[in-house]
Amino acid sequence: MSANFKIPLMVVISGPSGVGKDTVLQQMKLLPRPRHYIVTATTRSKREGERDGIDYFFMSADEYAETYQEGGFLESAEVYGRWYGVPKSQADEAMNVGMDVIVKTDVQGARTLRSKIGNALLIFIAPPSAQELGKRLRERKSETEEDLQRRIETANSEMLLRNEFDYVVVNYENRVEDVVIEIDRIIEIEKNKRMTESYS
Predict the structure, then answer these.
(1) Domain count within the chain
(2) H-state helical runs in 29-170
(3) Would you tell me how many other CB atoms lie within 10 Å of the CB of residue 30?
(4) 21-36: per-residue pLDDT in tens?
(5) How far apart are CA 51 and CA 67, in angstroms?
């Protein structure tokens, strides 16, 4: 094994709805790193400004079910009445050429991926407080009041599970760059640690 070779990682980025996962990932993609960002498949409708194949793969319920039956998802879950899945082929192809794979998923999905891929690196993005998270969700104005309350309740229960993750990074308001730097640092620390372990 070359001294410059580092074992590719599967990095799972999770956290409650509204914590800013998408914004963090958009900034991470600007870093010059050999990483593949998984595009999640979903049966939910497109939101304004979203692009098929870039933000998500938008699939009909039948298309999704067929892919699921064929074993095409590393992880699949129903969230708020819609299905979300991590396409297996994307992850396999990237890791086979030595690229780290970055997956965004909810807490339930992160648990599933940890059970299937024991050496996955799990990073939880947390809000500064429950109050701040509620404020961010309300400012999105993308849900009905009923859906909003359901998201807030789910977020509060997900926060209780953050100790199951390898790292917790707090996303303070207007400090996305700090979150990106911290996650980038964590990934490099873990890659170096695992490379050292592989030689021991």
Answers:
(1) 1
(2) 61-69, 88-96, 107-116, 130-140, 145-159
(3) 8
(4) 989 999 999 999 999 9
(5) 20
What's residue 40's pLDDT? 93
Query: How many angstroms separate the first and last alpha carbons of the chain?
Result: 13
pTM equals 0.85
Range of the domain at 75: 10-199
Domain of 45, CATH number, reads 3.40.50.300
Any domain includes 1: no
Helix (H, G, I), strand (E, B) or coil at 165: coil
Those residues of the chain that have pLDDT short of 50 are 1-4
Domain contains 5:
no
Report d(CA 144, CA 150) in Å as an integer. Answer: 10
Q: How far apart are CA 116 and CA 97, in angstroms?
A: 21
- pLDDT tens for 16-74 read 888 889 899 999 999 999 999 999 999 998 888 899 998 899 999 999 999 999 999 99
Please choose, from the candidates 86, 90, 84, 99, the residue with its C-alpha nearest in 3D space to the C-alpha of residue 187: 99
Residue 123 near residue 169 (C-beta atoms within 8 A): yes
Contact present, 85 and 76 (Cβ < 8 Å): yes
